């Protein structure tokens, strides 16, 4: 049945292409990143390699707070790879003009949106950024039914998270102030941008500033560092905030220097981390963590939960920041000579 749907969608996409739905950039052309864009062959190669022969849509995903092989961790981890693949399909359409990729994306969007039930757990759902990017890049080219279905889903996601954040403004529990909240801010800002909704974007900006107030000190140190004693969690806290700032930028807003009550901003947080990213300072990870789960992961042999922090894990963060200020480019290139492919989605 799914194969029939896929072939039907492919035929629709080819017809749309013939009707004149074409991309506005060529692969290999640098649009916004100070790097060479992925080649057409690289984009088509990524689009030709799905994580699984069919979409892996699930009604529920759960990874947060569990270890590999516990509960539904493994199946959830595998399924969420679909979201990055959706972004790859959108890039293949936008940057390489591949109609089959657009058609395949419609199948993936339909399958996931019809199957999945939002949990509003931001750690389990943070990977939906791939789906959001894919919709935003292709919304004008998708079949009308798919476009409307996806729009309703993203509206439910964005408003649902905002309502929960509003209800918990006075909640002092960690998950409403730590990296969890940063991932909520990312999802609502990306959702608002994809929906092109000024009202939702204004609410997202308020949430962003509240997170600066709750999570970032005046010197740029984030709350998660004091709790976890790990730069891993500094990056995990700042990456979603950087993604939120990029989404807001696409709507004409500049949040890089947006300040909290003590003058803190994403820029000050990036400056705090920069000596570690540049290798001037080093840090022994999780040595004094206050979170039991960190110790359990170390004991289970999960990579990255002991030893010195590897600066290269901040490469995506500083490449993202380089889109906001070219001053971060030197650090980004030092960490990785090329940006992650998914970041090209921010150019559209």
From TrEMBL:
Cellular component, GO annotation: periplasmic space
Residues of the signal peptide: 1-27
Molecular functions per Gene Ontology: lyase activity
Cited Pfam families: Alginate_lyase (PF05426)
Domain of life of the source: Bacteria
Keywords, in A-Z order: Lyase, Signal
Domain Alginate lyase: residue ranges: 39-282
Name listed for the protein in its UniProt record: Alginate lyase domain-containing protein
The organism of origin for this protein: Dickeya dadantii (strain 3937) (Erwinia chrysanthemi (strain 3937))
